[in-house]
Specification:
The complex is a heterodimer of chains A (about 80) and B (about 500). Chain A has about 80 residues and is mainly alpha-helical. In chain A, about 75% of the residues lie in helices and about 0% in strands. Chain A contains four helices and no strands. Classes of the chains: A mainly alpha (about 80), B mainly alpha (about 500). Chains A and B meet through helix 1, helix 3 and helix 4 of A and helix 17, helix 18, helix 21, helix 22 and helix 24 of B.
């Protein structure tokens, strides 16, 4: 039987689907009766999806254009 | 990079100057015996050309065996230092003096030359502790060490170095270090060392044939790609020190090696070169009958094989390769296309790190200017995009350090070793992404990401926002893949805690 702490130690690999079949079996046995770990797995997966799809820190194309132009002007002006 | 070769020679040069000052009995004879210096320089640069005749000539000219052994040790030490400094990219401590031209090339001989060239003083493991250590680890005292009996003090130091680098260091596995000893000795064409390391590995369970093959051409041995990359790294350090750059180190990082492991690889390679050089100088006789010679006439096949391997690697498709080549040859429009293609990614990384749009803009400009300046040094061993993100994240992290020197970005992962206890344990709604408008969700995520400590934040940015593969993100940050993964998990769990109040199911009976 593995504990919640054991489960947490393997969580990263479990989420990335990088655990051996035998370990996966043990982890899933634990999950089947541990609601806390079920919640952690489910909500961590959802967290990754939300973060990835959030469009965070994006700059719209129109705002980017003047910035790249400024960069290239600077580089061109430094050329002999 | 020309400076690497110069460091190479200057180290030998400085070592000889020191050698001259410190060892009176040699320096008395020095003026008349420039032969000794020639010998040491040739031993250091073309060890395969040394034969018993060279040593005989020195002894015939009145030099003592002790003096010759000392010259051998100093040349070997200089090689050790130069490999070490090349591998870790040391800046010279002093301005470089004008250096003598290196001796004419291609004197190397395909004949094996066995000695011993010098008189030996027998030392017994029972009375001489360093030999007892060798017996302990290798099962016998290789003749390479027995041939240096005139200098028990130097032997003791060598065995200590051997212990520290080969036997106790824990970053690389023992088998990886043995692979380096074999591949580097093979590249150096030192048959003696290949034989002794193959036999020692054999005693530990590696088939001797496999070890010979590793020394001859490790690509013929079934190893995972990261192990091949490690051996390529060692071989390049031996054969092409002048072409060795940051890119070579980055390549190992891409393969999942951390900096401790890279340093280990450099140290083992340097130690191999030391042992190879001593062997040529003293003419240590093989302890086992060699099954084949590693001496080769003409071009060293290792050299051409590393070349062809590099070409193969370049073919690993980088969608930017064409533009990068044009930009390198001065085509500014090509560079502009690269800027336009990658500006969003660079900006996102910097804004995510710095949290301030003005600073992110300036840092983006800085990133592209640096990339433009250093484009010549970019060798296509990693994708251009990864290289750019490396510059961007380093630029951003540097600004953070300046802003808040107290916050440690590099501290060890001790806190992530502690068990992480989730506090928010209520289930989330089925479709959390539908709970808020996109702009609201974005604001929540940005706030949560910016609240993370920088060392977790940067990993989350590269993996979950930029979606770089783990290996590339690890390489960009100079981390090993395991360290990267552990920081990523910690970062994700912290984000989960921060986002949970917004996405949890409502408690029963309470309406939204």
């Amino acid at each position: 039987m593995i504990s919640c702490a054991d489960f947490m130690a393997e969580l990263g690999n479990y989420l990335d689907d990088q655990v051996a079949a035998e370990v996966r079996q043990q982890l899933e046995n634990h999950l089947s009766h541990c609601q806390t770990c079920q919640v952690v797995v489910d909500s961590t997966r959802k967290t990754v999806t939300i973060v990835t799809d959030s469009g965070s820190f994006d700059l719209p194309e129109t705002a980017m254009k003047p910035l790249t132009e400024q960069i290239m002007n600077k580089i061109r002006s430094q050329q002999p | 990079m020309g400076y690497l070769r110069e460091v190479d020679a200057s180290l030998s040069f400085q070592s000889f100057a020191t050698f001259r000052e410190h060892f009176g009995f040699v320096s008395k004879q020095w003026g008349a015996q420039t032969d000794l210096l020639d010998f040491a320089v040739r031993l250091g640069s073309q060890g395969t050309s040394i034969s018993s005749e060279d040593v005989g000539r020195l002894l015939g000219a009145g030099l003592s065996d002790e003096a010759v052994l000392e010259a051998v040790l100093v040349a070997a030490w200089a090689n050790f230092c130069s490999t070490l400094s090349t591998g870790i990219g040391t800046e010279p401590d002093f301005a470089l003096p004008g250096l003598p031209a290196s001796p004419a090339d291609s004197q190397s001989s395909t004949h094996e030359c066995w000695g011993p060239y010098l008189k030996t003083v027998p030392l017994r493991p029972a009375e001489f502790a360093p030999f007892a250590i060798l017996v302990d680890h290798f099962g016998f005292v290789p003749s390479l060490f027995r041939s240096q009996g005139l200098r028990p003090d130097a032997l003791a130091a060598e065995v200590s170095a051997l212990q520290a680098i080969l036997l106790t260091g824990s970053a690389l596995k023992r088998a990886q270090k043995e692979g380096i000893l074999l591949a580097a000795s093979g590249a150096n064409q030192n048959t003696y060392c290949v034989v002794v390391f193959a036999e020692v590995s054999g005693a530990l369970g590696t088939p001797v044939e496999d070890s010979y093959q590793t020394a001859m051409d490790h690509r013929q041995v079934a190893l995972v790609e990261s192990e091949h990359a490690l051996l390529d790294f060692a071989i390049k350090l031996i054969l092409e020190p002048a072409g060795f750059t940051q890119q070579d180190v980055d390549l190992l990082r891409t393969q999942g090696f951390n900096d401790e492991q890279v340093l280990d690889a450099v140290a083992v390679t340097a130690l191999t070169r030391f042992l190879n050089t001593v062997q040529w100088g003293v003419g240590a006789v093989p302890d086992f009958a060699p099954r084949q010679s590693f001496r080769r006439a003409g071009n060293n096949p290792h050299l051409s094989s590393t070349e062809s391997r590099r070409t193969q690697r370049e073919e690993i498709s980088d969608p930017d390769a064409g533009l990068v080549e044009k930009a390198k040859s001065g085509d500014l429009d090509a560079f502009q296309a690269l800027v336009e293609r990658h500006s969003k990614r660079v900006y996102r990384t910097l804004l995510g790190l710095l949290g301030d749009a003005d600073q992110a803009r300036d840092a983006m400009q800085d990133t592209f200017l640096k990339a433009f300046q250093h484009l010549g040094g970019f060798e296509s061993r990693s994708k251009f995009c990864t290289w750019l993100v490396t510059i961007a994240s380093n630029t951003g992290l540097q600004l953070l350090r300046e802003r808040r020197p107290i916050e440690s970005l590099d501290s060890s992962d001790s806190e992530s070793d502690e068990a992480f206890r989730p506090r928010q344990i209520r289930a989330w709604t089925e479709n959390p992404e539908q709970m808020y408008a996109q702009t609201e969700r974005r604001a929540l995520v940005e706030r949560a990401v910016l609240a993370l400590p920088a060392k977790y934040r940067v990993v989350v940015l590269l993996r979950d926002i930029e979606q770089l593969p783990a290996e590339e993100a690890a390489a960009a940050l100079g981390l090993g893949v395991p360290a990267l993964k552990s920081r990523l998990l910690r970062g994700r769990l912290m984000l989960r805690e921060a986002l949970a109040p917004h996405f949890m199911k409502n408690p029963k009976g309470v309406s939204a």
